Amino acid sequence: KLFETNDSGLSQLQLGVADTGQVTRHEKRFGITSFIYTARRPFHPERLEKLVIEPYFVMPDFNEYITEEGQDEEDRVTEEEKEFRLKALQNNALKKSKTRKVAMGDLLRSKGFIWIATSHKVVGGWQQAGNVIRLEGETFWMCEQKHLWQDDPKAFATIQKYMGTPGGEEYEYGDRRQELVFIGQGLRSGDIQGLLDKCLLNDQEMLLGPEGWKQTMDHLDNIRLVWGEMGQRVKVELTEITEDN
Length: 245
Description:
seven-stranded antiparallel sheet; alpha+beta; 20% strand; globular; 7 strands; disordered C terminus; single chain
């Protein structure tokens, strides 16, 4: 089967195909569609936050935020204050849900991995369901871990597919890429592609290279994807997203 594609010059959309499991069996009945967004440029951390994360999604850890377990006893909020904050978060989520539906359609789920310029070595995991999005460091890109696979012929053959073009040329930044699956009803795929494309580095920014990205963008990065030295997952911080947004 040949799937419809849309190439913007910065990214590619593959329409009507996604590994969505049980959902795919109900596409016809419920009008659920899916597409895959891919790109070979990193996201600018501030633009990704300001154009996508902040306007359309909320933090996942509602209870942690509300209870403030780390505070001293005298500084802990009252039950009334907790209820007020919960309502504020719910109202914020509802507002963002309406805004998201206008901009994107009824986006039910999105998932995949991302490449952010300021966390160049780390694969960013993207998980979104409804109003809630979670971004976390997953591992290092395969091109940063060649010792794990370059001497294994089977692994080498598999991973090399992500390192280069069909014509055999190697990508400058190895297997680093954006690859996100979007699932929903009445999805505005072209608008979502355009929005994500705005978050990609432009030609001038690409010329700076990884060291230049770190120097010029690190102070703008509130996402802070990290992967611990011992391989442990480290929780991402979205420091700019609060109930007041």
